[in-house]
Amino acid sequence: MPRNPLMKCKRALKRMDEGSSRRFDSGCLWAGLASLQVPPSCSSIVRALHHHKLGKAAWPSLQQGLQQSFLHSLASYRIFQKAAPFDRRATSLAWHPTHPSTLAVGSKGGDIMLWNFGMKDKPTFIKGIGAGGSITGLKFNPLDTNQFFTSSMEGTTRLQDFKGNTLRVFTSSGTCNFWFCSLDVSARSRMVVTGDNVGHVILLNMDGREVRSLEPSSPLSVPCTWPPCAPPELSPSLQLWNLRMHKKKVTHVALNPCCDWFLATASVDQTVKIWDLRQVRGKSSFLHSLPHSHPVNAACFSPDGAQLLTTDQKSELRVYSASQWDYPPSLIPHPHRHFQHLTPIKATWHPRYNLIVVGRYPDPNFKSCTPHELRTIDVFDGSSGKMMYQLYDPESSGIISLNEFNPMGDTLASVMGYHILIWSQEEARMRP
Fold first, then answer.
1. pLDDT in tens, 60-98
2. pTM
3. Where are the WD repeats (predicted)?
4. Residues 6 or more apart from 26 whose CB is under 8 A from it?
5. Domains contained in the chain, number
6. Per residue in 405-422, pLDDT tens?
7. d(CA 245, CA 178)
8. What whole-number distance in Å separates Cα of residue 117 and Cα of residue 4?
9. Which H/E stretch holds residue 266?
10. What domain range includes position 112?
């Protein structure tokens, strides 16, 4: 590899880290990082695996080596599939849990597309109601992946199949003044959680019953320790669980993937709250309240459940430690301001590495903004907060609101207005 691009990148990263401790600058490194086109030799990975097998290398160092190899591979990522099936912007997406080339996408008009971009077959398309039907949350049913859950501005949270049938309506507001903004599901505890536009959060069994909280005397009502212990049996026999947990709209709900009675809720009331579902008695029974300077678009647990990533509506990402909620978070300045006619930008985790992926909406008022800054997809290290790479395609230069890697971690789906973009490593697509 030529030395000049590497030294240029190192100097840029060094400048980025100067004068910062737990606060990091996300200035544009596209020019420097894009020049790193040659992946490292795979022999280093083979050597690391061999040393780990011999007991000479710890798992964290091996994981770091694999992550570094993946970061170098991003230089060869290109958009190889595009689709624009909707007459309104795309608002949500979800990867199929077991088919790495299949995803579902929802739109502002309530349309839903199931797309296997590895096949030439026509995608499955479910027509929505149009205006007022925006799909705000979309999850495959982990117990039957031919089905999916949605929350919508139509005022419902429901279970559907890809033939267009509604199998169950979990919640229905019955009025256009109230709608549901987010949802998450747990296969282990068979729970569905959804939040609405006035601050309510509802927890239900997958059979449609509202989950009720546990008696204080229950042996399962003791505080959860970290690392996570075994999942509780949530009893359906006690107090109804439908509470106003925030003062304003609940923009995001997330169950911890390793400890799924831990719930994070994000709101435009400028807070993220952490709840123990076994301990909820009312709006003040949260474990922790994490105040923010601006309304919050999303709060996502890392795949190992040990960190929480939040995205505000202005210019800040935060990374909290799930074992130290009171400890100051890592702050990552990043431009992604809110705009009414733009699908809210939400940062997500890579499913296998400690990496954060988020779309950039350049802001002239952002302190490190440069002239003609590109609308890139930015990749940050989740531990250091440093910018590691920026993806960009000059033919798809719009604002990219949603980005999510498939469960294998080798293919990225992005939402850019009306368009769905699929990124993958160029060499991988050329293989037979």
1. 777 888 899 999 999 999 999 999 999 999 999 999 999
2. 0.82
3. 243-285
4. 16, 332, 333, 334, 335, 368, 378, 380, 387
5. 1
6. 999 999 999 999 999 999
7. 15
8. 38
9. strand 262-267
10. 80-430
